[in-house]
Amino acid sequence: MSPAIISTDLLQKTAGKETFQRAKENARKVNIAKFQFNGKQASADIDTYHVTVRYLGETIEGACNCEESDGFDFCQHCVALVLHANKRAQQLLSLSKGPDKSKVFAYLMSLDKQELAKQFLNLLEQDTEQFQRFLLKASLGAGQIDFAKLKTQVTEITRSKERLFSQRQVKHFFSRIEQFLEELSLSEFDHDVERMLKIVEYVFQRLNILFDRLDPRTEHKHRSLSILNTMYSQLFAKLGGRDSTRAKRFYALWLVDKHQLLSADVQTSMDPACLDAFQREVLSQWRQHMGKPALAPWQQRRLAECLRDHKAELTLNESQAVRQVLAENDRDHLNIAQHWFDANEHGKAISVLEKQLPQADEPQRLLEPLGKHYLQRNADEAFLKLFARYSELMSPLLLEVSNDITTRISQQCIDILRDQHSIAEQTLLLKLYVDASRYAEAATLIEQGNLELQERIDYCHIIGGHAPDIYPRLVLQLIEELLMKQRSKTDKQAAQLLVELESRLNEKSTVTHFLDAKQPLFHSRPQFIQHYHSLLQSR
Questions:
Q1: Residue among 25, 88, 77 nearest 53 (CA)
Q2: Global confidence as pTM
Q3: 175-198: buried (b, 16+ CB within 10 Å) or exposed (e) per residue?
């Protein structure tokens, strides 16, 4: 119900012209609060005074506790209350003539406070979620928070549902958490810092458990986490006690924050003394972990990242342990091994490489330092075991150092390589055959034609100096292969090989027979004949 609109004439007559005029001039300056109307009476607090106006049909009466009224005269404050009531009644009248929403609003505004509260409560009882929200408002606003019930509410709203498949479901789920945290943040939550901090810490723990099942990258979490981090920062700043005690408390939460829900700003907002104490606590816990490992892999990584980022003063063993936890690829493990090599801790360096090798993305990066280390220390068995598993990747390395390996390693590597077919492995096998004076086997490998032509030509020359009985057969095969290629450069190479063969042979019949048998091929390659005769004449 809205108050009746009192005319200016009646108001001026009741208050008096001078009082009425003074009230109008001050209308914009006065502060009106707690306005109420119960059908026959309006009341409000105006400035520092409590004012009441009674509506008596054709007349009105007012009272105020100011000196001018003295509890019964119609003072300027009574005038101000009537003017305010008139304005409110006019607004409600205008709303009642507007669209449906305005009409409903006008009706609600006309109800007295108790009736409105009853109707609103009836509506809340039909919506469990909203009822719980207003129950939280009521409990927080009462000044005495039931922290046990509050913790139960946290457990309930953060309990993961069985099915959260769609984005809409996830959004609705987090909206409930957000509403809860908003109501909590709007209350006097820092009234009991210790107990409320425990509630906020519990929320962080529950959300971490929740994100074990949900995708932690969801965008719907951001508002909730922003509120939660703000509350935590404010509470932690007001937490009393020694810096070391506060640091240990923060560390306990930070260590279980698996999904890093704590904002980085929380840590940077600590006072310097507490932050230093926290970093010392991290280092202390890291050293305890090194002595008796008890942390999950993700926790180890968090500690290692913190030590790295804050450039903590560590021993070599501690620094290496940090690098080991943070290592993500072969290059990182090589770096760790190199630090051990530089410190003359060869055994530890090799252990790092051997451990990483089975899961390496690029094993050849690790094989070179491993292989060289084994050879330098005459660890034949270790080298051969490694070579047997990675012969193709290690062949370039062994080719590079083949002149320095022992006969035993050479013979064992030949046995391993016989059944291998990659170019790198066959190239190494050819080199080992020649180094071991096993020219017949080297010739067979050349005749198979799998290796590069120029490489076979080079080895053919070497074999020619040691096995003249094998040489002609190899040269003639290579000449024929050169002539089959449609390039002018190969004509000259073939001619050079033939002339060199003739120079090495006492019996020319082999060359003559070859020339006669390949006449059709020579006719198609006149440049070969030209180069051949030119080279003979120049000798």
A1: 77
A2: 0.64
A3: ebbbbbbebbeebebeeebeebbe
